[in-house]
User: Which sequence fits this backbone?
């Protein structure tokens, strides 16, 4: 009996398990998902928690409910992978043998990696919103905030959902205007990037949106430490704050490093098309856990999981096949005041204006703030629970198409 063991029951792990269950004979293959708990968190919703739009019950559901019949859920903490023996060891000593191993344990904010960040100000005037507990604490801080200096800082890249800090800046601007506090608040967006985003066309647009909202951009700001009420960069710049909203350094799981499978950030180096771990024929890494050069976004985890599962199932049925992931990512970007824009890109093509998913028709508009994009982002939560996780067919292309997109004239020239 073959064994597919999937470490992590988040977006990528759940979709891969459910698709493999349908494609592999139950009498020939066991599928096991390992996770520390039975709580599946809808991570895109964390952004809305500080502004009171979502509460904990809106975002957390039992993990086992979204795994297909015939997929075993093991609750436990992964301690070590022993590739030479095809074994996973859990805390407590339980051993799981695998024929194929899928690493999908994501990436996690690590405030402990920035000196001073976990000082007395942590949870008081310094916050993050990439965990549910952190987002809830930040909601309380925003309710108490009466004006002053706010710094939104990205410590380093890569991070999961790299547009989320920008969205937070736009939403906070709108939130403060509604409360009559914007005139008494200085907003600063500090980023390690030279601009607002990684790709030129989107960076130009998003940068101008920050400027239009009177949000100060501090580019190339590599945070070295936090001291009292200030954050200091490696080149000596200091940004004072009354409220710090930080995106800490993101790192993969510690067992990845302990098992000799990770890079310096505990992400698994993989072939960027097949998602096969470097040096291992029967180990793959999906979603935020790997090091592919595209966004660590839910859309990426979704596409990777589908392509990987199809390719592995084909291989196990004797048909030559490999996943051919092209880096496809798409992300809604909340702009405040009930509007959002949409990005669609891959390894080779940056986000461009146009329409999605149907070229020329949409209905969603790329790189243009619209109310329909905003409602599309909110409607996606329903699709996530009812269609995406159960791996039901969705009218969304796995590979990016250039049809319906165009390079702005000012950039092309």
Assistant:
């Amino acid at each position: 009996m073959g064994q597919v063991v999937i470490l992590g029951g988040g977006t990528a792990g759940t979709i891969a398990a459910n698709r493999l269950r349908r494609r592999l004979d139950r009498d020939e293959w066991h599928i096991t998902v390992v996770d520390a708990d039975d709580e599946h968190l809808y991570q895109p919703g964390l952004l809305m928690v500080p502004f009171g739009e979502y509460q904990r019950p809106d975002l957390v559901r039992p993990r086992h409910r979204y795994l297909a019949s015939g997929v075993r859920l093991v609750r436990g903490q992964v301690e070590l992978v022993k590739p030479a023996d095809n074994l996973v060891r859990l805390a407590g000593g339980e051993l799981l043998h695998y024929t194929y191993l899928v690493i999908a344990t994501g990436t996690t904010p690590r405030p402990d990696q920035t000196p001073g960040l976990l000082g007395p100000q942590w949870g008081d005037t310094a916050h993050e919103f990439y965990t549910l507990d952190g987002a809830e604490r930040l909601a309380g801080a925003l309710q108490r905030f009466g004006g002053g200096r706010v710094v939104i800082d990205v410590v380093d890249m890569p991070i999961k959902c790299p547009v989320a800090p920008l969205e937070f800046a736009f939403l906070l601007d709108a939130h403060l205007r509604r409360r009559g506090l914007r005139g008494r608040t200085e907003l600063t967006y500090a980023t390690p990037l030279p601009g607002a985003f990684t790709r030129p066309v989107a960076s130009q647009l998003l940068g101008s949106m920050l400027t239009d909202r009177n949000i100060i951009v501090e580019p190339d700001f590599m945070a070295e430490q936090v001291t009292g009420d200030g954050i200091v960069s490696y080149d000596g710049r200091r940004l004072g704050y009354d409220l710090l909203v930080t995106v800490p350094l993101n790192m993969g799981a510690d067992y990845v490093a302990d098992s000799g499978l990770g890079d310096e950030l505990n992400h698994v180096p993989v072939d960027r098309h097949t998602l096969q771990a470097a040096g291992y024929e029967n180990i793959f890494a999906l979603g935020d856990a790997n090091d592919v050069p595209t966004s660590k976004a839910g859309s990426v985890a979704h596409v990777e999981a589908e392509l990987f599962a199809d390719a592995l199932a084909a291989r196990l049925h004797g048909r030559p096949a490999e996943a051919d992931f092209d880096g496809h990512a798409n992300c809604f970007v909340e702009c405040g005041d009930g509007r959002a824009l949409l990005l669609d890109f891959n390894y080779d093509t940056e986000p461009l204006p146009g329409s999605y998913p149907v070229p020329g028709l949409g209905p969603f508009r790329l790189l243009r703030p619209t109310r329909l994009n905003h409602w599309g982002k909110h409607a996606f939560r329903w699709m996530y629970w009812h269609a995406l996780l159960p791996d039901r067919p969705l009218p969304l292309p796995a590979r990016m198409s250039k049809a319906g997109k165009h390079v702005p004239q000012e950039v092309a020239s």
The chain has a mean pLDDT of 95. The CA atoms of residues 174 and 336 lie 6 Å apart. The longest strand covers residues 329-336. The radius of gyration is 21 Å.
